[in-house]
Design a protein that fits this description.
The protein is of the alpha/beta class. It has seven helices and six strands. It folds into two domains: 73 residues, no CATH class; 118 residues, TIM Barrel, CATH 3.20.20.70. A four-stranded parallel beta sheet has the order 1-2-3-6. The chain has a two-stranded antiparallel sheet with strand order 4-5. The protein is globular. The protein starts with a helix and ends in a 6-residue tail after the last strand.
Length: 208
């Protein structure tokens, strides 16, 4: 991906984020319009960049960087908003199957989707829930009307999150101790989840 493409992707992500919090993309575009002018460094100023590198200069560079950091902090504060909780809807296929067994419901993909749909379409969910932790299957699912769950949550003012660990395995010769799987391709998976719409992640171990 070229530097230009990366810049556009960053800008789109920022607009998407601010638009989500303000619930109005036009306001987000106005808030970030100056971000379109990123840093300009000539080859003389930044020789290691090489002759093909083109940057853009903005006299308010420091303020823009501080603003971007503030957006991230705003997200963190929104997740931890007083009076609200985080809904853990990240049960693995096996775990949710055990719960379905207690009510005699088949552990099938469509049943899991309908169960999550029931949760995420609860009226006024955003008044009580700040974020929802999703599972790999769930973050890709849609409502009966074809609306992605991520979009349903965002519209309700709820921040979508994702479980990124892949479960645990026993440590050989260490009875009762386990290690968490999922580090090998964590970078690729988190990048994909972010593109889908996740804005925070959960990583879990059973023992420390």
């Amino acid at each position: 991906m070229s530097n230009h493409s990366k810049s556009l992707e960053l800008i789109n992500n920022l607009i998407d984020f601010v638009g989500f919090r303000l619930k109005e993309k036009k306001l987000a575009v106005n808030a970030l319009c100056s971000y379109f002018c990123c840093k300009l460094m000539t080859q003389a100023e930044h020789k290691e960049s090489g002759p093909a590198t083109i940057w853009y200069k903005n006299p308010h560079e420091k303020e823009l960087i501080a603003t971007a950091v503030n957006y991230e902090m705003y997200f963190l504060k929104a997740i931890a908003e007083r009076g609200k909780g985080i809904l853990a809807a990240d049960e693995s296929t096996g775990t949710i199957g055990k719960r379905f067994d207690t009510i005699k419901v088949a552990n099938e993909e469509n049943n899991r989707r309908k169960y999550r749909q029931l949760l995420f379409t609860t009226p006024d969910i955003g008044k009580y829930i700040s974020g929802v932790i999703l599972y790999d299957e769930t973050i890709r699912q849609k409502t009966d009307d074809g609306v992605p769950f991520v979009e349903v949550l965002k519209k309700a003012g709820v921040i979508p999150g994702i479980k990124v660990d892949l479960g645990t395995k026993d440590i050989p010769s260490q009875p009762g101790e386990v290690y968490t799987q999922g580090l090998t391709d964590l970078d690729k998976r988190t990048a994909e989840y972010y593109k889908i719409g996740a804005r925070f992640a959960k990583w879990c171990v059973k023992r420390v």
